[in-house]
Amino acid sequence: MYRAVAVRTDAGQGLRGPPTARHTSGEVVRLARGRYALPQLGSHLRAAHRHSAVLSHLSAAVAHGWAVKWPPDQPWLTVPRNRKMDARARAGLQVAYRNLSPRERRRGVTGHVRTVLDCALKLPFDEALCLACFARHCAAPRFSCGGCGP
Prior knowledge:
By secondary structure, the protein is of the alpha+beta class. The protein is built from seven helices and six strands, in the order E-H-E-E-H-E-H-E-H-E-H-H-H.
């Protein structure tokens, strides 16, 4: 889903031509060692790819196309529970530590139910309710939040 615009490459494999040449020409942006993306990739996805994380909470809701009360000003990322990130790497990010499913890692974003639950745990009640009801009615009709309407 999101891997079409961000690639991880080892020793230049996966890109046509040397990555440094593509980087200097502006065709790709270097995110981290061995990690490149197209320039139009959003800042939240760049941060997730740079830190080998997945989008979660509000960033995941926006990636799913859901309406949120306030768009996130910082990327919300989830990294595996055993991952170490120093304070400098976490600067400017909202980081959560959780076990990630292979599907979440592959897609680069938490699933619908996980996103709603994460937001319900971290956001103020009105923001979480807004997001949960939107997910229930518009985005994922098979998901039931138990009482915010038909």
